[in-house]
Amino acid sequence: AKKCKNLESPLKHGDSFDLNGLELYEELSTLSSMLPHAKSVMDIVQFIHTSKLVDIYPNVYIATPILLTIPVSVASGERSFSKLKLIKNDLRSTMSQERLTGLAILAIEQDITLSLSYDDIITDFAAKKARKIAFN
After folding, report:
1. Residue 130: left if φ>0, alpha if ψ -120 to 50, beta else—which one?
2. Do 104 and 80 contact (CB within 8 A), yes or no?
3. How far apart are CA 131 and CA 45, in angstroms?
């Protein structure tokens, strides 16, 4: 009950609340007895939606998208910091911020990086940086 009540305060806008913590706890208690074999939050959301019980369980219906979104946002942040630790070690501590950011993006977006053609990149770079010397 305390955790449901704690979820109430971040979802407060002025004097109004998006959900009621105590009602959320009661709704979850009722649903857990109705769905003892539910294996995931998605099972509960699908049950509420297909049974057209959104009006009966409004707090659960509001809280579940938040619950399903949080792990994704946390995981992507953790992945970024994990890659950053691999890139910026003691040997590279003098690296500029711009280079570190570029390397981090390359490491995080590894699937795109692996599909790049290095020959094309080198050719483009050489064409842009080539100095044209006129011989007389």
Report:
1. beta
2. yes
3. 63
Q: Which pTM value belongs to this model?
A: 0.43
Task: Give the mean model confidence (pLDDT) for residues 66-83.
Answer: 65
Q: Which residues contact 98 (CB under 8 A, 6 or more apart)?
A: none
33-57 exposure pattern, b = at least 16 Cβ within 10 A, e = fewer:
eeeeeeeeeeebbeebeeeebeeeb
| More confidently predicted of 69 and 71 | 69
Determine the pLDDT at residue 72: 57
CA distance 25 to 4: 6
pLDDT of 136 higher than 60? no
Please measure the distance between the N-terminal and C-terminal CA atoms of the chain and give it in whole angstroms.
Answer: 86
Q: What is the pLDDT of residues 3-31, one digit of tens each?
A: 777 777 777 777 777 777 788 888 888 87
- Cβ burial, residue 104 (10 Å; 0-12/13-18/19+): middle
User: Nearest to residue 27, comparing CAs of 50, 48, 51, 49?
Assistant: 48
